[in-house]
Structures are given as structure tokens and as C-alpha cells.
Amino acid sequence: MQEAVHAAVRELEPELGREKLTVPLVAARAGVTPSTIYRRWGDLQALLSDIAVERLRPDSPPEDRGSLIADLRAWAGQFLEEMSSAPGRAYLRDALIGDPGVNALRCSDYAADQISVILGRAAARGEPAVDTETVLDRVVAPIVYRVLCRPTAIGPGYAEGLVDDLLRS
Amino acid sequence: MQEAVHAAVRELEPELGREKLTVPLVAARAGVTPSTIYRRWGDLQALLSDIAVERLRPDSPPEDRGSLIADLRAWAGQFLEEMSSAPGRAYLRDALIGDPGVNALRCSDYAADQISVILGRAAARGEPAVDTETVLDRVVAPIVYRVLCRPTAIGPGYAEGLVDDLLRS
DNA sequence: GGCGTTAAAGCAACATCTTTGCTTTAGGCT
DNA sequence: AGCCTAAAGCAAAGATGTTGCTTTAACGCC
After folding, report:
1. What is the DSSP code (8-state) at residue B152?
2. What is the pLDDT of residues B42-91, one digit of tens each?
3. Residue from A108, A137, A152, A164 whose CB has the most chain B CBs within 10 Å, to mutate
4. pLDDT tens, A52-71?
5. Which are the contacts of B52, defined by CB distance < 8 A and separation ≥ 6?
6. What is the pTM of this model?
7. What DSSP designation does B156 have?
8. How does DSSP classify residue A137?
9. Which residue is nearest to nucleotide C10 (CA to C1')?
């Protein structure tokens, strides 16, 4: 049932656009009654927030490119690309809304997990250690901040520059 | 009229709590009709977003403490304190919702302006130069990111540590 | 294999909020 | 003074959100 509702949102969102979505519409498409959705999620935002988190979950571990800097640069570049796209920004915003602390934290954990994999590989290679929290502060946070607040202040190579600055220190 | 509505929200929010606010309630308190609010703002979120930005606007330039590091540490500490309080987090989230790019950008500009003042004073003293954008990336972005996504990962001295790390490099 | 228990979904009536066309009011301009 | 425009009021229609009660379906237990 939850799956039918999620599928209904994924179908309807491209058809109608984000802000024309309503609970009754989604319910009709999913073949359930609106009250079902209200009872499970509370409101449309919470539902969209759940779906946003689902979509932001990485589907595979980061590719191994042979060195810490190459791995981090590639990951950061791809992360920025995803987040700065129109749908990416929308998902990010949706994820931040619902249930303070729960959904946003899950997204952050996704990033932290990916970074940990990269750092683990670097450690196995004997490369100089960096901390996951530090990468969150120095790479992820600036990307997210700029995507949300200053999208025009992101130029080409921005993500990679953050990685380079971090590893240089 | 806009002022009456803003005042009504400021009155009602502490009385009822954020999520019990409705457009008709605010309208009644402000002595206007709901349609007035709908026509001017579109919906409750846009109105709350406007008010959030207003509240996040600094009311005075940062205090001069005699050195770049002291100024930045004091400012970052206070910024974190404001943002991590329950109302601060709520305002931050509200500001990010409305009108992608407009309100969030205004908040970011407030921070950038404060930082520019601090950096301008440092330059006048002949202290080594730092860039406003760099301070946004290294200090503001991590604070905002953690407040939004990982509030439990903020310990005492976190903001000051970010400033120290930045100025050491 | 029935049979109670329980959690979830349907239904339907009700309350509330949102939208909209039209009217009214207030300010600025000639 | 008398338009002209922008903004607000009003009220009705439409859509959404809420809730108590009923129904269904899954599970464990005699």
C-alpha cells in the first residue's frame, strides 16, 4: 500500500508538477482513500519528504578510482551535480521539511556512509587519514549550503576545488 | 496592512504553536479577510517564510573585538547559538521553503554582509586577508548544515573551532 | 481448521480551508 | 472635484483535511 502511494506520487509529479499535487489526487491514483494517506503520513509534505529521502539514497557504493583524491573529487562532483539539478534541489528541500531531524539526518547519513567507504579504501591504501566529519564540514556542507542559498555562486569545478583545498591542508 | 498581518503571526505563534497557525486565524487576528492574505502571499508558508527572513535579519553590525579572530569567533558563536535554538531552526527552515532562491538568498546575504564588515575591519588593521566566500564555505555552511541535518553533532566550541581551523591555514 | 484479536483501510459526514468573481474603498493624479 | 488604479472586503462555490464508526485481512492460538 505504501508502495502504491509512492508509485502514484512518482507518476503524478512529472505529469502535473510538484505544486499541483494534492492528497486526494495521489490517493485516487494509488487506488486508496485520502484518509488512508492522512492517517499514515499526516500531510502531503511528510509524504513528499519520505519520497525525497528515498530518491536521495545512493544506489551503489562510490566507484573506486585508485586514490583518495580521485575518489573524493568524483564523488563530490557527482553529488553537486545531483543536488544542483532542479529535481535534486526539490528533493533536498522536501527532505529538510518533514519531521525535523529524522529525514534530514537520514540524507546526511547517506552522504556520510559514502564518504566512509571512500575513506576506508584510502586507509587500506595507507593514504593520509581524513575524518568523515571533516569531509562533511569541508565538502558536503558548502555544497548543500550553496545549492540551497546561493545557487548562482556555484561555478564549474566548485566541488573539486573544495576537495583539493581540504586535502592540501 | 502587511504589518498588521506580520504582527498577528508574531502574536499567535507563541500562543498556539507553529503548526496550529492557519490563514483564517491570522487574518482574524490581523483584522483582515483571509482572501487578502491569500492574494498577497499565496499561502501560509510564503507568509511564514517572509516573517522568518525578517527575524533572521541582524539588527546591528557585529561588535568590534579588536582582532579578526576574536571578531569571527564571537560572530560564529552567536550565529550558531541563534540558529541552533528551537525558534532559530524553525526560522531557518521556514526561510528555505518560500520562493526558492529569494528568501534563502536574503538570509545568506545577511550573513555575508556581517562577515564583510568583519573582514573589512581586519583589512583596515592590516591583518592577513580572507575572502567572504571562504568564510561562508568554512564557517557558515558547516553550521547551517549541522543545524539542519545533524543537530546532535554540534558540541561546545564547534563554531569557534571552525574559525580557528580556517585562520590557521 | 475455525476463531478471536488487532492493525490498517474504507466510508461518509462534517469542519475547515482555499479560490474566485464581483463590489467597495482609499489614494494618487490631472 | 472627479477619474483611475490598486488593494481589500464579501460571499459563495469548490476542494481539502478530519474523524468516528464499520469493514477487511492477517496473525496467532486454541
Report:
1. G
2. 999 999 999 999 999 999 999 999 999 999 999 999 999 999 999 999 99
3. A137
4. 999 999 999 999 999 999 99
5. B90, B91, B92, B93, B94, B95, B103
6. 0.93
7. T
8. I
9. A33
